[in-house]
Specification:
Arc Repressor Mutant, subunit A; single chain; mainly alpha; 5 helices; ArsR-like_HTH; two-stranded antiparallel sheet
């Protein structure tokens, strides 16, 4: 995974909207994605290219249509590498605090 490509792709609000649209309904065509967003077809195509380059989406042909699918693997890898390790210590502290408060109840 190329972290820089993933973070660059996620940095743009329009690309995040595209990912949200695919999360809501996976397997959309370019035309369907353009309908839900206030962007020109050319802009959507460029954003999809960056998302595909970052491996955040994949495509498949169905006849003449090109369908776009979200790929959650890079997002999970970002979570594992950059978020999870910080989350564990915080959750552990909250767990310990909860037990301490429960023990101190009259």
């Amino acid at each position: 995974m190329d972290d820089n490509k993933v973070f660059k792709a996620l940095a743009d609000p329009s690309r995040r909207k595209l990912l949200d649209a695919l999360c809501e309904r996976n397997g959309q065509t370019l035309g369907q994605l353009c309908e839900t967003l206030d962007m020109q077809r050319q802009s959507v195509t460029q954003h999809l290219g960056l998302l595909e380059d970052a491996n955040l989406i994949s495509t498949a042909r169905r006849g003449r249509e090109k369908l776009h699918f979200i790929n959650p693997v890079p997002l999970y890898e970002v979570y594992e590498r950059w978020i999870r390790k910080f989350e564990e210590s915080r959750l552990s502290l909250l767990h310990d605090l909860k037990h301490e408060l429960e023990r101190s109840k009259p």
